[in-house]
Amino acid sequence: MSEVDSSDGPASEDRLGGPRLWILLQLNRWVFTGVILAVVYVVLVAFSLVDVTPLRVIVDTQGSIGFLFSAFIGAIITGTSIVVTINQLVLSQELGAVGKQRERMQKAMEFQQDVEETIEEDASPPEPAAFLYELVDGVDERATELEAVMEDERDERLREKITDYVEDVNRNAQSVKVDLEDAQFGTFEVIWNALNFNYSRKIYDARKIRADHDDSMSEEANEKIDHMIDTLQLFGPAREHFKTLYFQWELINLSRALLYISVPALTVMGLLIMYIDGNALLGTTLGIDNLVWVTSAGFVVGISPFVVFITYILRIATVAKRTLAMGPFILRESEREEDLG
């Protein structure tokens, strides 16, 4: 890499752009679930218009509609139980003796003090969004300080690289800080903005600049770059800590959502099995047999716990994939240039 490219696309301002990632990460999980279920419902109803055996004939042959929905009862009960059990196993890691809890407390306090010392704050905020805001703001300030000492550097090429680097850091930091101002932990906004700050690339760029110009760089500039790297290195553990807390938060929400939706789903399955047969709901609506409308709706209700599970796990899995490497390692092609290294 010959210089820092300030037009590094998503790495500079919005690394999470694009409709696919917006759907996977930011779209409300209940809306996402509703869209999937609506699509399934439309497909089931529309397929009845194709030249296939009518549903009412199939139900008459089977004697009742139970052949279609009886399997849902066992699947919903078993699936919900397994997910809740897994959730409890994950949360059980939070339990422990007082000595273990005290050690965790001490390590958390030590990290917070390291951050405060590095960003020169007397006391860092306790809220995750505000804490990350101060940390990103500290990186922003270190970049400005680095640019200030470059005025006396004789190496013009070095000054150009530092200017491009500082512009990239400032732009990314300002974008993230604006979104963190109103973010509340428990929503996805905190993690979204933590993912949007590409600290790994900034660590690499700073180390690469220093390695390429070590002979011509002044001692003061070296110190500023060291301070910059030290501040960036703190962002990784902070992001991973809040990501872990968010995963636990989401697993709790997932368990509650499945418990809320499972009982109504089981009730609907029971009603359909007990009361719907080939002689029920005679007639048509909009040219489609009423039995098709009701049976399709029942199928959608039956798969709803599974779809809720999918939408939550898709977000968790996507975040986990995008944060596999903590530190200076870059796994995704979108975060690097062709001449990286």
Helix content: over 70%
- Overall structural class, as computed from helix and strand content, comes to mainly alpha
Distance between the termini: 6 Å
Q: Low-confidence stretches at least 5 residues in length (pLDDT < 50)?
A: 1-14, 334-341
Total strand count, please?
Answer: 2
Secondary-structure element string: HHHHHHHHHHEEH
Radius of gyration: 27 Å
State the shape: elongated
The total number of structural domains is 1
Largest β-sheet summary: 2 strands, antiparallel
Number of helices: 11
Strand arrangement, major sheet: 1-2
Strand content: under 5%
Structural commentary:
There is one protein chain. With 341 residues, this protein is mostly helical. It has one domain (9-335). Helix content is 71%, strand content 1%. The chain contains 11 helices and 2 strands, in the order H-H-H-H-H-H-H-H-H-H-E-E-H. It has helices at residues 19-26, 29-47, 55-62, 66-91, 98-119, 128-149, 156-180, 189-195, 199-212, 219-275, 290-322; strands at residues 284-285, 288-289. It has a two-stranded antiparallel ribbon. The chain starts with 18 loop residues before the first helix and ends in a 19-residue tail after the last helix.
Q: Any chance you could write out the topology, listing elements then pairs?
A:
Layout: H1 19-26, H2 29-47, H3 55-62, H4 66-91, H5 98-119, H6 128-149, H7 156-180, H8 189-195, H9 199-212, H10 219-275, E1 284-285, E2 288-289, H11 290-322
Antiparallel strand pairs: 1-2
Helix pairs in contact: 2-11, 4-10, 4-11, 5-10, 6-7, 6-10, 7-8, 7-9, 8-10, 9-10, 10-11
